[in-house]
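Incident log, support desk, overnight shift.

02:14 A customer reports that sequence design results differ from what the structure should imply. Their input is reproduced verbatim below. On-call engineer (initials T.W.) acknowledged and began investigating.
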């Protein structure tokens, strides 16, 4: 057996599943774990991806952009990984976002998001239109979340490090879709993460169930009428799954479970386990219509499909949805937001639109800084208008899908797409500007090849010898200035060319090691 699950856990599972199913469940711990990658369609479409990558790919049935891979291929050791073309993700973890049914233009919240696997999946579905607010209460974990948002080229995300209650106070009824990938006792991850198996304690179940109920309560207040949310865990305990949903439905009659159609991969919820809990004095009796709805939730079982254990519930809030056409354009939220999630904004107010109106906390003049951004755009970017509201935050310039006042009083990790920092009136472009730019949006591009090792040398931070003829300049752009470095056409970072040498601007913390 590759991993030995805790004894107390196995005893519970035997009681819940019964002898026959338990035998199959237990045997699944003899199987190797499954590894997966998901295509980042913000950067490359699935067909081009299948042709480009050297890995053997096998489709994951529940995620159109997901593939099983052989872990031995080391997917993290390829320049395309550094170009953000794919995310390495456990296959079952790709299911919740598929059920959220995100469409471009929506306001989406990922409430428990770090390190950001599901947020990058949501962002790909938004295709740059609408807004993703991605949050995690753990400050340390929001660093990885912000990095993933940046590596995967997401332009329309705000990263928060807040409690769900405080977000609910700031954004009541604001979101069309919410993902609650809840903190849980992690019983479904023992095969993937041996530490989880070693550390697991039965007390965790009750502790996490309490947290999940609080988080769901806030999520309900954040969702617009007619909106949808998906609740997911990677644990088997009914206290954290069917019982959490039953309690939620009891408290929130305006919600109903959207039935999941069971198939070869998704098994139904286990309403009978509510009774099992009640008999042990650890649950309660629920009205029959609530019990029936827990059967419409989904379970992914390691003995029935190729992935780790998960629980899924799709919940819809009754009521009229907001008119979708108002959400269609990126950044259409006004600063004088009132009486509803969306206001209209003159679409001409793009990033060259409304000027800054004061000084930031460091006393820096916003107008001056925003002018530096405009000057940079003229010199180093092509004519294309980039989306979002330019705003100053901590001395850096961001393009944000929200206006600054909407974020007042919240713990903001990134108020939007980080485009650069300003020193002595000049903007130094940020790495996230490069990763989210397409080559056609940059004034100068140097394309490296993944095949000949030059891209890896760039990713290691080396200075490259580059003939002038290799730099592709847009009309009116000279060779001097920031060069967008790409690998086979996909953005990696910045460089600066002079006299046959490319000075490497790839950040030290991102380098190939
Ligand atoms: C299952 S993990 C999320 C994984 C993530 N969705 C992904 O796909 O990469 C649960 C996360 O919830 C966070 N968390 C715990 N309590 C929270 C709370 N009260 N509010 C928001 N996030 C919380 C944890 O820090 C943890 O990062």
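02:41 Re-run completed on a clean worker. Output:
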């Amino acid at each position: 057996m590759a991993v030995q699950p805790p004894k107390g856990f196995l005893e519970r599972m035997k009681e819940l599943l019964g002898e026959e199913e338990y035998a199959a469940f237990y045997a699944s711990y003899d199987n190797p774990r499954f590894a997966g990658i998901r295509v980042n369609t913000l950067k490359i479409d699935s067909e081009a991806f299948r042709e480009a990558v050297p890995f053997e790919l096998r489709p994951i049935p529940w995620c159109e952009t997901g593939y099983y891979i052989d872990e031995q291929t080391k997917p993290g050791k390829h320049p395309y990984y550094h170009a953000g073309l794919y995310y390495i993700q456990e296959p079952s973890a790709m299911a919740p976002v598929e059920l959220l049914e995100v469409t471009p233009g929506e306001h989406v919240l990922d409430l428990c998001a770090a390190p950001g696997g599901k947020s990058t999946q949501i962002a790909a579905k938004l295709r740059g239109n609408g807004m993703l607010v991605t949050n995690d209460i753990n400050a340390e974990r929001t660093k990885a979340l912000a990095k993933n948002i940046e590596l995967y080229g997401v332009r329309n995300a705000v990263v928060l490090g807040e409690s769900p209650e405080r977000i609910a106070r700031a954004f009541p009824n604001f979101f069309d879709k919410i993902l609650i990938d809840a903190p849980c006792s992690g019983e479904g991850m023992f095969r993937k993460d041996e530490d989880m198996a070693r550390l697991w304690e039965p007390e965790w179940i009750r502790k996490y169930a309490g947290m999940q109920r609080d988080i769901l309560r806030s999520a309900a207040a954040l969702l617009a009428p007619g909106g949808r949310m998906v609740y997911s865990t990677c644990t088997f305990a009914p206290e954290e799954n069917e019982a959490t949903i039953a309690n939620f439905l009891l408290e929130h009659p305006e919600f109903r479970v959207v039935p999941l159609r069971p198939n070869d991969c998704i098994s139904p919820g286990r309403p009978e386990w509510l009774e099992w809990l009640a008999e042990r004095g650890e649950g309660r009796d629920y009205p029959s219509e609530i019990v029936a709805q827990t059967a419409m939730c989904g379970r992914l079982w390691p003995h029935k499909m190729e992935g780790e254990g998960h629980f899924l519930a799709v919940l819809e809030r009754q009521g009229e949805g907001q008119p979708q056409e108002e959400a269609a354009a990126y950044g259409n939220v006004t600063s004088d937001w009132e009486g509803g999630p969306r206001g209209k904004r003159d679409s001409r107010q793009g990033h060259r639109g409304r000027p800054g109106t004061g000084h930031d906390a460091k006393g820096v003049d916003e107008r001056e800084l925003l002018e530096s951004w405009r000057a940079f755009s003229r010199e180093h970017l092509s004519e294309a208008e980039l989306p979002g509201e330019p705003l100053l935050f901590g001395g850096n310039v961001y393009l944000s899908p929200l206006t600054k006042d909407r974020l007042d009083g919240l713990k903001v990790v990134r108020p939007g797409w980080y485009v650069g920092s300003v020193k002595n009136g000049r903007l130094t472009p940020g790495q996230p500007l490069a990763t989210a730019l397409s080559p056609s949006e940059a004034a100068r591009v140097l394309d490296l090849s993944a095949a000949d090792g030059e891209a890896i040398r760039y990713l290691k931070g080396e200075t490259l010898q580059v003939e002038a003829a290799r730099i592709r300049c847009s009309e009116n752009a000279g060779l001097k200035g920031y060069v967008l470095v790409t690998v086979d056409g996909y953005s990696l970072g910045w460089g600066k060319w002079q006299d046959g040498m490319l000075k490497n601007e790839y950040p030290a913390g991102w380098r190939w090691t």
